[in-house]
Q: What sequence folds into this?
């Protein structure tokens, strides 16, 4: 009887550990994903602002007019 009780207790303990791990896994994934997504978002925003500044700083091309070529 003691053996059955011990096996039941060990099985219940292992099931509880497995359930805790499976329930905690999504939280762990979120804890890892959110900071990475935040850093990537900041990097993308900074890149977009730099591209906008770079495009605004380049010399503007004159408007094309066909008049000098075709009278």
A:
């Amino acid at each position: 009887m003691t053996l059955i009780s011990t096996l039941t207790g060990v099985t219940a303990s292992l099931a509880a550990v497995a359930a805790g791990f499976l329930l905690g896994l999504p939280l762990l994934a979120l804890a890892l994903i959110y900071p990475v997504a935040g850093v990537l978002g900041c990097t993308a925003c900074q890149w977009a602002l730099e591209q906008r500044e770079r495009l605004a700083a380049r010399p503007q091309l004159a408007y094309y007019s066909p008049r000098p070529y075709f009278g």
About this structure: The two ends are 109 Å apart (CA to CA). Residues 30 and 36 are 10 Å apart (CA to CA). The mean pLDDT is 81. The chain is about 85% helix and 0% strand.
